[in-house]
Amino acid sequence: MLITIVAGTFFYITCCSECGATAPTEPTTEQVIVKEPEATAYHFPKDYLKNNGIASDKIVATSKGQTEPIANDTTEEGKDKNSRTVITLN
Predict the structure, then answer these.
(1) Helices (H), 1-90
(2) Domain count of the chain?
(3) Which residues does the annotated region (Disordered) include (predicted)?
(4) Residue 88 CB contacts under 8 Å (≥ 6 apart), including other chains
């Protein structure tokens, strides 16, 4: 299952590599769960998953913005796309 949470920045949640799920470059309407202020953007996805029954030891969050940019950082839109965290469920 692939779920994307938009919380001021883009979050991609995939299950472990054995399941074959991959993260898209843009979320689809069906994948957008909620939009929250950017101040809570990093912790929100993990908290959301924990509050909905996913064990915290199964959640791995990795920041991707600086090491793996997906857009040009010279525009605000590009910066928003690059400010993202990938969450993997193990």
Answers:
(1) 44-51, 76-82
(2) 1
(3) 61-90
(4) 13, 14, 15, 16, 59, 60, 62
83/70 Cα distance (integer angstroms): 10
Digit-coded pLDDT (tens) for 40-52? 455 677 777 788 7
Structure-block tokens of residue 80: 């928003």
Q: Label the pairing between strands 84-89 and 10-15.
A: parallel
The verdict on pTM exceeding 0.85 is: no
SS3 category, 87: strand
Handedness of CA 46, 36, 81, 79 (dihedral sign): negative
CA distance 16 to 8: 25
